[in-house]
Amino acid sequence: MRVRVSPSYMEKLYSFYSPFYDAIFGQLLGPGRRRAFQYLDRRPRQRILEIGIGPGSTLEFYPPRTELVGIDISQAMIDKAREKAARLNSGSTFDLRVMDAGRLEFPDSYFDAVLSAYVITTVSDPRQVCREILRVVKPGGQIIVVNHSRCQKSGHLSRIEDLMAPIFVRIGFTTDLDVIRVMEESGIKILQSVRCNLLNTGRIITGTKQ
Fold it and tell me: Which fold has domain 7-208?
């Protein structure tokens, strides 16, 4: 049985992290987050959704003149992201909102691309989040997820990930979720999965809506 993720606990925890999130997690998670942008179509004037925008760690990496909508469960994170957005001059627009990733307040097939970094293992219903991602992206649009994903093969590593999950969920994520399988079961067509971050513990997972 998977470790239970509490939305209220995660909201409070990431609000607590907001003043120093990049300082703590930047070295561990930043490389995968930055590398993910190598897979994003660089054409201008795309409408893009980033789920889990945090304190705005990625704002400067978007192509010029992007129409970016960024959401996060934490008001404190959104406040930090807005402060950063106000200092940028890339020609992009930044619409930053507090929102539940499992209940996206957007029409069907609204975005050219959806990015989500280190979110799916922090939510109580990852399948619902993936279904919402699929719903709001346009057919043929890009889906880019950066996340740890539980080893798909039975063995020592998968057992360790399961054993460690109750510890890591207190830090802010769980290690016992096969993110790739969840995405596939939600209807997302997986295109590739590339290892990233320290010791290759993360994955950049690219997909699309057929």
Answer: Rossmann fold (3.40.50)
